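Supplementary Note 2. Why include the ligand at all?

Several targets in our set were suspected to adopt different conformations when bound, so apo predictions alone were not considered sufficient. For every target with a known small-molecule partner we therefore ran a joint prediction. The input for 2-oxoglutaric acid is given below.
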Amino acid sequence: MDSDSVLPLSVSFQLPVIDFSDRTLKPGTSKWVKVKDDVRKALEDYGCFEASFDRVSMELKKSVFEAMEDLFELPVETKKRNVSSKPFHGYLSHNLYQSLGIDDANVLEKVNDFTHQLWPDHGSKSISETMHGFTEKLVELDVMVRRMIMESFGIEKYIDEHLNTTSYLLRMMKYTAPPDDDDDDDVEETKLGLRSHTDKNIITILHQYQVDGLEIMTKDEKWIKVKPSQDSCIVMVGDSLCALLNGRISSPYHRVLVMEKKTRYSTALFSIPKSGVIIDSPKELLDEEHPRVFRPFEYNDFVHFFHTEAGRRTQSPLHAFCAL
Ligand SMILES: O=C(O)CCC(=O)C(=O)O
Ligand SMILES: [Fe+2]
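The joint prediction is reproduced in token form.
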């Protein structure tokens, strides 16, 4: 959407819930085939779903939350040392929103590099291990979901190549509650924590910590409030996956409204095409009935376009950047 300046009302809604906790969920089993069909249906309908996934224990989630409280308590000057060679992967801050990013968060040494950016003398062994352990669990879910999607579209022979050409970014977010004098209006721009956008990457896995706020736009352009349960997360399609699948699944618009008088923390694990990798639909997805929708592109070029004035203003950056 081009603007959130007049925020339409949103309604509560239950996204499809898909169970990924079952240890017998393995490729080739009947359970796998059933879950795969559910994933395909949910993604076609909403571009996202709620995954119940107990491999992230309540204890681990609590440690992640406490680590985030400590990290965001640091002085702004310290948080600004969280820089990355990749654009927009480091510390970001605007209005109610702040975030810190860990590149390659599935690699313990890289997470150590992150804590050493903040505490150059000693890093933080416990925060590094917590964030790395959390990422490792989420990678298992990300890989299962991507394998299911590729099987479902008959392109599973590319799965290893696909997985080898992506990396992970873990982003931690803090949304500060808006000041008290905004009491009169239920929905207004001052409560906007993150403006409406689609994610640019492959798959995003979102966790929130007690406080709601995420909203997703349905195909008929209604905002729905997402309320994941304690032990679940939201799995969402990004623009790069939409392009890879020749537009067969769309990436949903979503935003964050800070409606409660509480600080909201969330995390996002993004699977991202590595630098230099060209995102292109496999030939199996191109035929007379499904002509090519997007020209092949490099992920960083797309992200750069999104951060130009034209990219920011357009309704759909993916279409503006590379639709044929
Ligand atoms: O905080 C959230 O729940 C959503 C974050 C998000 O959409 C993003 O980082 O792209
Ligand atoms: Fe997002």
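The chain has one domain: 3-322. The pocket of 2-oxoglutaric acid (ligand 1) is lined by residues 171, 173, 194, 199, 206, 208, 214, 254, 256, 266, 268 (CB under 6 Å). Comparable summaries for the other entries are listed in the accompanying table.
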